[in-house]
Amino acid sequence: MRNLDAALGIEPAELVRVDEMPLPKHLVREGDIIFRSRAVKSFDGTLIDFEPNNVIVASPLIVITPQQNKVLPAYLNWFINQHITQSHFQNHAKGTAVRMVGKKALEALLVKLPSLGQQAAIVKLVSLAAEEQRLLRVLGKKRKQYMEDILMQMASKPQR
């Protein structure tokens, strides 16, 4: 579960591999969403956006396989991670310290399904917004370094 990150995805190199061949129905495939059913804060989804080889998930995780003729996996993953959807999961979660969302609560979720074209547009905008945030962080770091360099130069100049 530590390999899951809703924002960053999954790093294939960090996955634990097993030698035994699981049943095909247990294998995770590209386009699946791994749903974290036990959480302290959020019940997030992570999209599998690569072709995993012989990967299965641990029992507290739920694999969602979207019907791609109705919903884009990236759209469904985005929808699962939205605040309003997280509120639905919080309202249906059981437990105190570590809360758990059961399969029934997941199945009860009403997913808003615009056309596939609109879903693709939403996914594209989400991707562009994430890239913008990444670039702004890089720019902020460079600006801070530039300002520190200027201030250090000013501090190093001899007084007249």
Q: Would you kindly provide a written description of the structure presented here, covering whatever features stand out?
A:
- The protein has 160 residues and is mainly α.
- It folds into 2 domains: 1-113, Adenine-n6-DNA-methyltransferase TaqI, Chain A, domain 2; 116-160.
- The chain contains 4 helices and 5 strands; from the N terminus they run E-E-E-E-H-H-E-H-H.
- The strands form 2 sheets. A 3-stranded antiparallel β-sheet has the order 3-1-4, covered by helices on one side. A two-stranded antiparallel sheet has the order 2-5.
- The protein is elongated.
- The mean pLDDT is 88.
Give the strand tally: 5
Output the structural class. Answer: mainly alpha
Question: How many helices?
Answer: 4
**CATH topology descriptor of the largest domain:** Adenine-n6-DNA-methyltransferase TaqI, Chain A, domain 2
**Total domains, how many?**
2
User: Which parts are unreliable, with pLDDT below 50 for 5 consecutive residues or more?
Assistant: none
Helix content: 40-55%
Percent range for β-strand residues: 5-15%
Overall 3D shape? elongated
Strand order of the largest sheet: 3-1-4
Please state the average pLDDT score. Answer: 88
In N-to-C order, the SSE pattern is: EEEEHHEHH
Q: What separation lies between the terminal Cα atoms?
A: 61 Å
Largest sheet: 3 strands, antiparallel
Task: Assign the CATH superfamily of the largest domain.
Answer: DNA methylase specificity domains
